[in-house]
Write a structure and sequence with these properties.
Oligomer: single chain
Family: Belongs to the peptidase S45 family.
Organism: Fulvivirga sediminis
Active site: 281 (nucleophile)
Largest sheet: 11 strands, mixed
Strand order of the largest sheet: 3-32-4-5-9-10-11-12-20-21-25
Keywords: Calcium, Hydrolase, Metal-binding, Zymogen
Binding site for Ca(2+): 353, 356
Length: 814
Amino acid sequence: MKLFKFLLIFSINVLLIYSLNTRLVIKDIPIPPLGKFLDPAQGFWQNSEHDSLGYATSINIDGLKDSVSVTYDKNGVPHIYAQNNHDLYMAQGFIIAQHRLWQMEFQTHAAAGRVSEIIGKGGLAFDRLQRRKGMSYGAEVTYKAMQKDPFVNSCIKAYADGVNAYIQSLSYQQLPIEYKLLGYEPEEWTPMKSALILEYMIDALTGHDDDFENSNALNLFGLETFNFLFPEKLPRMVPVIPSGNENPWDFQKVNATPPATDLPTDLIKNILPKPDPDNGSNNWAVSGNKTASGKPILCNDTHLGLNLPSLWFMIQLSSPEVNVYGFTFTGAAGVTIGFNDSIAWGFTNAPRDNRDWYKITFQGSSANKYKYNDQWIPTKKRIEAIKIRGAETYYDTVVNTRQGPVVYDKSFGDHDAKKNYALRWIGHDPSMVQKALLELNKGKNYDDYLKAIEHWDAPPQNIVFASTSGDIALRVQGQYVAKWPGQGKFLMDGNNPLHEWQQEIPKDQNPYQYNPERNFVSSANQPSVDSLYPYWVYNSSQEHYRNRIINRELNKMSQITVEDMMKLQVNSYSILPEETLPILLDSIHLEGLSQKEIKALQQLQEWNYEYKVESYAPTYFQAWWKQFMICLWDEFNKSNVALTSPDEFTTTYIIKNFPDYKFIDVDSTDKQESLTELINYAFKKSQKDLSEWQQSTGLDTKWGNYKGTFIKHLADLGGSLAGFSRYNIQVDGVADAINSTKRNHGPSQRFIVEMTSPPQAYVIYPGGQSGNPGSILYDNMINDWRDGKYLPVIFTGFNRRENDQMIYSQQLKP
């Protein structure tokens, strides 16, 4: 018996020691080694002692040409002062790695399809998709283009040298905690990784399409029904750049030749994952004619996934040639969104169909040849070796055609030997966005802005501009393709050359506004232009609500102040319930309702359409509208093929103007329900769903709880690092409000700048400057972001390095 107890205790101790120091995998989810986390010498506690302002004050870096001064304000924003551009961007690479090394490297692994190297076989499907989409290929061609530009090449090389200088200075004890928990170490940073960071954003902002879903709907319902349910234009659409006297479109357009053949009739069941269609932003600039100061004010907030560490990092970069402040992507040289002493700029996504799919017919099962222009031509194959932690390397053969890589085939996607689909995507083309940003950073006026964004290829953006000289502008900029009407809206025929992309639209024919008569410019991912624009423009996920609120408010405002703009950026009003809730309420039958249901209706009747966290009406409406959409479009939800139901804007148009339309019915019943019956059924169902939600969560149904916004750590796989994330953040707003917050998506930063001399700027984002979860600067801005507060920017001139608001400094020496 004593021997049994000894063996039992010994076994438990061995198991405990093993589990504390070994990275376990349970159901393909990696579990960090708890022992390494708790190790007082090298674990989390050691990392937490070194926050963002606890680094060495004097550092020698090989490769610098001169000394570089770095000062920090109380929010951990570094202000870097260098004597030349080489040192400036080398110091930027060093400083950002010092704060965000793990994040910047992890994002390049994700872009390149190398996550399996870190987390094991649970990342294989993701990695295969990234490789098959052509992410690495796109980064490679972009890097080759950047290498051909001496200035850009020198900047990204200096940046990489700075990152590597920091990596080489690290001991294991100093490694970011994520490396220790996930059990690997950083590798050398190369300029190619900066290209991968750009590809990562191109994918996030152009990687969504509904081509397969559109094809399925077309083949199931017919063209007439499809066009009714998925119209390209509807009343009340407000484009970014309206036609009119300011935009006569008096240019000679390039033409695309349409084909005479029919489209493929495939029905596709399985759709591979795509980025969030709500990835986008708000931006606007108001003329000095509308402001209290007489100077323009520019505003921008970018809507992306909410993660920790934050996507953005704030920085000031100063040299004799450039003095700029703003938000930068970790891994990219220069400032992405920001201002200097003369101009300011910002971005919103400019949605247009940038991805097209082609049906490929192979000659035999070897996929060595495919049919093009009724001839069999050779394919090119790329062997992707995907390293998997704890398992053998997986070799995936990606077949390439004129139309792009074959993503779907018998081994991936729809798993059908007869369904081979190639992707043509703007992400496969070289992008000189890095050059455009570096040129914007040192721009002085409107002409410099135009020259800089001439290099902007992908992702296409609505680029807003303001200057201290009083100009405002907005240009829909990117390298667009001239398409024949309908091209790329559905699956196309890879055999037909006329289905290919034929010609590019000259960039000087892109829509724009410059000092318009209404004294403001604005965009929020709505359609770029109206039907008078000479080119056919299409996108399946255009925005229809935020842009109208912005324009409505700006039209009626005068004597605008920065404080007014702050209030507008966090405006939680939604036009969706304004246009739909009266219809729902007018149709409700009160008989048979419970007291609780009647109380819910009373709160909806008194609601002002603002999504405030303490309010219950937004929850009641969202639950009701969700059930209404499910019931109305159940033909789409129950299909055995991939379909996307009509959007909320089209749904509102249909129920207002065609209340007896054939799809207004609950498909699972034997009778034809009326619109009124469907609305009442959806209300009862929504109230039942809310009761069940409350019972399962134990939470009150106020809007803040029901929405449940959270900001998740990038490595929080299956909740294994939940302590590094923030949950149930009580933040106002909804997806279609200006304050466009969802559960794990929303304004990833907010930026307001008044173009005085020097400009006065205000910023916030939902995170902190440090990537170290143990730092006080890891998530210190979340509460202010939640509450609609801003931080004033400290913007110093090149010759004014000392500032009484700076609390820490570093000297980087050659």
